[in-house]
Design a protein that fits this description.
Elements (H helix, E strand, L loop, with lengths): L5 E5 L4 E5 L48 E4 L27 E7 L13 H19 L6 E8 L11 E7 L4 H17 L3 H9 L5 E4 L3 E4 L10 E5 L11 H22 L5 E6 L13 E5 L15 H4 L3 E2 L3 H10 L1
Parallel strand pairs: 2-12
Antiparallel strand pairs: 1-2, 3-4, 4-6, 5-6, 5-10, 7-8, 8-9, 9-11, 10-11
Helix pairs in contact: 1-4
Length: 333
């Protein structure tokens, strides 16, 4: 493929991404941002997520010493959304969406995040993800649990205290539904798991960033964001609850290592949106292979970001740096 423009297919979603390596040398006179200063205080009396402090909703946090989970004081979803009338002949269609939104604080330390937490503390976060996913899926009106972290003000994080969110929803979200269709169609056509086959194809190749006994990190062939990565378990598992204690520990170790690589890339706390895609409650287990997406926006420095504008918004995603080059850079850090 070399330096010529081409497009690549994402078999999970059926969508294409345009790759234009020749654009990497163009001059930049666009917007520059000053990277935020790193958080230095282990405790912030004004932080509404620190232990013992009062949250914005008026509830006081306990003096927690590990992970801490609570229902979001300002949730995007509530468990009792009233039904909406629906006209089957109208093109303006809406329906109720009930759900539960929770916050998970990774640590009582205000100044630590995934890359700076001890690996065993990251494993405790993984175990909390497992517990919360299982509990929420037991609720009769919940169909899907989305775990995600927005790291940094660039990604809209409203508080620097290390935390993530869980949104448990009544219906399967768009991107998850697309990936489910892609995995089901692949299984029906070939009789094997799409992501098991993909990982087998990538093992030892130029897009692998790092791996351990249970997990591998790859810059996917179809990556959209400059330093996007895909975290895959080597054993076929459809949801977080299926991971063994050893696998949960390996996932924590891997996430710690990967996020340290990100922070090293441009010498700043690297912003990203990260989340796990796992099997919806009523979906078949066979085609589903759990995985995590990391979507970081930085492109060429701590100040230069990738924006989805113009052609990307109106036609299809486009990237300049190839996935192979991005993987090489991350691997060598």
């Amino acid at each position: 493929m070399g330096e010529s423009s081409h497009r690549r297919l994402n078999p999970l979603t059926g969508e294409w991404v345009l790759v234009s390596p020749g654009r990497t040398g163009r001059p930049w006179q666009g917007k520059l941002d000053t990277p935020p200063a790193p958080v230095v205080a282990a405790y912030d009396p004004a932080c509404y997520l620190c232990p013992g402090n009062e949250r914005a909703g008026g509830v006081r946090n306990p003096q927690y010493t590990s992970t801490f989970v609570f229902d979001n004081d300002f949730p995007a979803l509530r468990p009792d959304a009233p039904p909406l009338p629906r006209d089957p002949n109208s093109l303006c269609i809406a329906e109720a969406e009930s759900g539960i939104c929770r916050v998970i604080c990774f640590s009582p330390r205000h100044d630590l995040s995934l890359p700076s937490l001890p690996p065993e503390a990251v494993t405790a976060v993984v175990q909390t993800w497992q517990e919360q996913s299982s509990k929420l899926l037991e609720l009769p009106f919940i169909e899907y649990v989305q775990i995600f972290e927005n790291r940094g003000a660039t990604m809209g994080a409203s508080n620097p205290h290390p935390h993530c969110q869980i949104w448990a929803v009544q219906h399967v979200p768009n991107d998850v539904a697309k990936e489910e269709r892609g995995q089901i169609e692949y299984l029906e056509q070939r009789g094997t798991c799409l992501l098991c086959d993909y990982l087998a194809q990538e093992r030892g190749g130029e897009r692998i960033v790092t791996e351990n006994n249970s997990f591998a990190v790859v810059v996917p062939f179809w990556a959209v964001w400059p330093f996007e990565t895909l975290v895959l378990p080597k054993r076929h598992a459809s949801e977080l609850a299926e991971l063994t204690p050893a696998e949960a520990n390996d996932l924590g170790t891997l996430l710690s290592f990967l996020t340290r690589k990100y922070d090293t890339l441009f010498g700043v706390p690297f912003p990203y949106s990260m989340g796990f895609h796992q099997r919806p409650k009523n979906a078949p287990a066979a085609p589903w292979h759990i995985h995590a997406h990391f979507y970081p926006p930085l492109l060429r420095s701590a100040e230069i970001r990738k924006f989805m504008v113009g052609f990307e918004l109106l036609a299809q995603p486009q990237r300049d740096i190839t996935p192979e080059e991005a993987a090489r850079i991350l691997r060598n850090l």
